[in-house]
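Reviewers of the previous submission asked for a worked example of the structure-prediction workflow described in the proposal, so we include one complete record here. The input consisted solely of the amino acid sequence. No template or homolog information was supplied to the procedure at any stage.
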Amino acid sequence: MGLIKNFIFLAFAFPFGVAHALTLEEVENLALQRNTELKVSNLEVEKSKLRRKKSFSDLLPRVNIEISLNLTREQSILFPLSPNAPPQELIFSRNLYEKYILLFSQDIYNPIKLQEYKITDRAEKIQRLMDYEKKREVISKVREAYIGALKLKAVVDIYGKQEERVSSHLRDVKELYKQGLVAFKDLLETKVKLYEVREKLASARADYKKALSLLSYLLNADVEEVDEVKIELPKLYELSLEELMEIAKKNRKLLKVFREKVSLSKEGVGLAKASFYPVLSLSGAVQYSRESNVFPNSLYFLSLSLRWNMLSGKGRFYALALAEKEEEIERLREMDVEGKVRLSLRNILEEIKAVRERLKLARVRLREAEEHLRIAREKYKAGIGTNTEVIDAQSYLISAQRTLKMNELDFLLLRFKLLEEIGYER
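From that input alone, the workflow returned the following structure tokens.
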């Protein structure tokens, strides 16, 4: 059913080449399905899983079968069994004979292989956590690119509306000029402003297309339009830094990765120590051969052996020292990454605080700009204002609209970043 749903979604995402405004949720789902970095990360998880299975297989019994056909010089003697009986030929080795051997071996206690398995198991867990973190990173890039495209789309819409306003104002100026109520300078000034707005609109459209191209690259799919984000996000910015840090320690996969790396380094110390311990093995063999008529054709043995490397220079001691240093390094890295997450959270909270203040000011500024444009238009139509005042008021309104929209989208992006930084799961 999951594959059918994905197929239906992709089929309707781009129907017959018609531009479809993808929502943020649709974009995120496409990224998880198609992003090349995530495909590579998934393959890395599979590789780590195979390494663990291979290491586990080294702990299992080993059974070998050997079949051979041997050609050599025959070795025999004539041996009299009794004075009256003819001598018997005793064959120690025939010139051609076959041999069958079944070998079995099992390490009852092999500390090195046990420790290697623990390491591969721990490495697989780390790789899975890194895969989660890679998904978070890709989703973060996609959200940033999506909101960046929304910003440019908003700029296109704002300049489009300004073009309509200036065009409408130009029509009014032309009518007033025909009536002899305004100077030709007003007509030229308004036309220049219209050309200027159209240039900005063309530039904004080009930037918007480039933003869509970046988004298409991240998704490995064509994106022709983006839609407004309609999602309710928790107000985590109301929590303190320490409260957010506690949530991050529990949920953020990056912090878990470095905790697991510390544990992995401990396993590395254990592996280095394992080289000092003995290995206990059980082995056996069953053999059948027609090599001789003197010795039994069938042989078997069962062996319990203890191998202990008592002396091999100082290599093992150096390996242990290196493993202990690696553990110390991983502990410092864990502390460092925790500090970086704390710093990032603090910076995001400060940025959210600043952008909320800017939003308040931007809303006030927009109301003032709208009122300023209304007054300028009325004054101009009444003949007590100038065309320059109207054009300036329009520019001021556009600036206020753009500032408000940019701050709203910056606030949205920062809230997403705050969620991502504490390990928010989709």
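The first strand starts at residue 21 and ends at 22. We consider this example representative of the routine output the project will generate in years two and three.
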